[in-house]
């Protein structure tokens, strides 16, 4: 028998085979997990710019310390495909529910440990190494989280509502960002810079433990998805899902990866890089805003990010995901040519840049979940969707803040916009190459 032949499977527990998830339960369970996951992820992204260069990477050159910190930020993106393979395997073999719980615990534990790490002054080179290890754990958990959350939503969706249901996990991104940035903003307003660098930055990391407990409670209450239960009943599960994905669905994997590239580049330029460059002193080539000022700029932009996600999900079901992604990607390319001009046009320009960029992010991020999951059959969908999304993260996001910082430092901020426009062209070509059934 071939590796990809269906293998026998143990029957689903009776409670899971008869329990039906209500729409509210499905949407809350898919949303709460990604909110927690992205809260943890963005807490690190913010600290990687504001704290870690001082605490874990002491250097006389501020830009060098920031670049070293951003390298650890990128580690998670290389861990995410590994998480996609590991959690995807179990998600396609034993079920979406149990795998989602394990992914959440992996992410949460890694985040809490980061909040407890001593700095370079206390343990030397071990400090950045332990930071990198915990960052790897964050990426591993997130690599398994996203795909499962999207499938939890889409595999419970009624006909004609897949994009609408799939956008609910995506809402976890702006909500998690608002929570993490808001947390840092409150800390910045209520304590001195010395206290913040000493212990204040640790509070959001450790506090995430409470959010994880809430997420676990909600997810343990849901039942397995109907589509996965049917696959179990028909003995359709495969032995090694990743092998099936690479052998039978390689084209969909490659196209989906590069369809997602512009989404990732846009988001991490608008958040991590822009925060870093915006708060870099004028004498060092940055924009010279205070940390508090620029966190407010980003929070306003993220509100528009959150508003356009449901709008894009609704439009994608009304027209098609393909049309919405095509039009949005063209708009991202155009925005790239105005990025530097807006960002350097005073505080008003910075607000406009953040609002436009993150609104476009919502329009591309809303339908991307359903689009990346669509080409894969139920038996390998967890693995296929997770791998596609997380490979897109490697090519689009892992080094985006680093590349943008290098371009802005060695050339000018205009080249950061050109970099964004080039990524949009790549994604647009792949959208057009994919078939209608693949997006």
Automatic annotation (TrEMBL):
Spans through the membrane: 65-87, 99-117, 123-143, 164-187, 199-220, 253-275, 295-316, 323-343, 349-376, 388-409, 415-435
Coiled coil (UniProt feature): none
Domain of life: Bacteria
Entry protein name: Transmembrane transporter protein
GO MF, any single term: transmembrane transporter activity
Organism: Rhizobium johnstonii (strain DSM 114642 / LMG 32736 / 3841) (Rhizobium leguminosarum bv. viciae)
Stored InterPro entries: MFS_dom (IPR020846), MFS_sugar_transport-like (IPR005828), MFS_trans_sf (IPR036259)
GO cellular component: plasma membrane
Cellular localization per UniProt: Cell membrane
Keywords: Cell membrane, Membrane, Transmembrane, Transmembrane helix, Transport
Membrane topology: Multi-pass membrane protein
Residues in Major facilitator superfamily (MFS) profile domain copies: 26-439
Chief subcellular location: membrane
